[in-house]
């Protein structure tokens, strides 16, 4: 029988009881440190855990680079989560140039193979363009952003990080902010492309997307590279879709969630991809596994509460992640599943669990910063993402950065 989680990847919950003042103080420390660490030439220093293939220069993307740090500093100050201070948005034009250099580098071209492109939401042009519009109030970037989104509509990646599901999110946000129909049209075009590429799998007995990513074709299920992330983008803008088409699509997504679930005494989990070998450990992270499935699908208008609650129970039983405090594959990201369940059910138990994970994540962040001598300056993989999670715990809300709130 497949184990629902790998105990070696998790650690016992430890930390003080929830204290909103302590959470706010942690946010202030994280933000103040990021403000002090900025240098125009070096931006923010790369963390060893984010360095790939000997990478030593500053990272620049929304996902784990300078654009994401600017986004977080602007977001937290804009909402009053932290005191006023610099966001460094005036450097985004330079960050855009540097990010394009990274995207056009030979190692990335090789890694992406035939799917190479520079458009994506979390790593590419779209994320930096949108952040320039939001944090630096640069209206002039919007035509370029619209072109990028349009060109990404039929990208074969079919996932949140690189594909149309990611670039649909800024289109939706801009439609809601400006009321302009062109952004709604771009969102709908992406939704139609996703619906058209959702195919039935006889063995699974449900519908899945096939990702053409990093030179491989894989049917991922998770919230970053797979079905859950795609579903999240569709759920977010369902009011723009034909009601009948949405009812059918919503039902198909619920069926896949059910068909791919693995149940056990400690709850419900999902493999990273369809046909995952039974001897491969199941992950319990936002990017792959129950937390991300719950977070991405918690707003689906289908009777899936048994599955979602089971995923939440599994996330709680597994405990905080050894990897650290971050959003993508850390304790804060897993805690978002509890916030989403609180939002869906109104059950205070889930909010209490999110806040317990938050206090543990603060301890992890502080310990790792002390060990290295500095913090991890990124949104999805570092301390700025933790600060955003702490703010949601203070607010008792469930907005995942750059997915639910842009």
From TrEMBL:
It comes from the Bacteria. Signal peptide: none annotated. Pfam families: LANC_like (PF05147). GO terms for biological process: carbohydrate metabolic process; peptide modification. The keyword Zinc applies. PANTHER family: LANC-LIKE PROTEIN (PTHR12736), LANC-LIKE PROTEIN 3 (PTHR12736:SF7). This is Lanthionine synthetase C-like protein. The lineage of its organism: Bacteria, Pseudomonadati, Myxococcota, Polyangia, Polyangiales.
């Amino acid at each position: 029988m497949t184990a629902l989680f790998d105990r070696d990847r998790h650690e016992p919950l430890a930390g003080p009881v929830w204290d909103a003042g302590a959470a706010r103080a942690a946010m202030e420390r994280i933000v103040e440190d990021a403000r002090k660490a900025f240098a125009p030439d070096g931006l923010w220093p790369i963390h060893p855990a984010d360095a790939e293939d000997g990478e030593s220069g500053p990272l620049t993307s929304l996902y784990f680079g300078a654009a994401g740090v600017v986004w977080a500093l602007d977001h937290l100050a804009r909402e009053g989560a932290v005191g006023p201070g610099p966001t460094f948005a005036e450097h985004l034009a330079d960050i855009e140039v540097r990010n394009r250099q990274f995207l056009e580098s030979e190692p990335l071209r090789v890694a992406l193979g035939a799917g190479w492109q520079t458009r994506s939401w979390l790593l590419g042009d779209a994320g930096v363009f949108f952040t320039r519009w939001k944090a630096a109030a640069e209206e002039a970037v919007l035509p370029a952003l619209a072109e990028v989104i349009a060109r990404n509509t039929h990208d074969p990646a079919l996932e949140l990080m690189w594909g149309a599901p990611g670039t649909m999110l800024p289109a939706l946000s801009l439609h809601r902010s400006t009321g302009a129909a062109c952004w709604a049209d771009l969102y709908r075009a992406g939704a139609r492309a996703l619906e058209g590429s959702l195919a039935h799998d006889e063995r699974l007995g449900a519908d899945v997307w096939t990702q053409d990513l990093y030179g491989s074709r894989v049917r991922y299920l998770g919230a970053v590279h797979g079905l859950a992330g795609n579903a999240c983008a569709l759920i977010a803008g369902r009011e723009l879709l034909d009601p009948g088409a949405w009812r059918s699509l919503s039902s198909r997504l619920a069926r896949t969630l059910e068909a791919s679930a693995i149940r056990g005494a400690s709850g419900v989990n999902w493999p990273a991809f369809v046909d995952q070998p039974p001897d491969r450990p199941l992950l319990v992270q936002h990017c792959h596994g129950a937390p991300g499935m719950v977070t991405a699908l918690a707003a689906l208008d289908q009777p899936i509460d048994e599955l979602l609650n089971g995923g939440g129970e599994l996330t709680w039983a597994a405990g905080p992640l050894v990897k650290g405090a971050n959003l993508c594959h850390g304790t804060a990201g897993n805690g978002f599943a509890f916030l989403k369940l609180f939002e869906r059910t109104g059950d205070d138990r889930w909010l209490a669990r999110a806040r317990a994970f938050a206090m543990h994540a603060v301890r992890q962040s502080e310990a790792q910063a002390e060990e290295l001598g500095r913090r991890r300056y990124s949104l999805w993989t570092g301390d700025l993402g933790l600060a955003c999670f702490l703010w949601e715990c203070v607010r008792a809300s469930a907005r995942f950065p750059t997915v639910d709130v842009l």
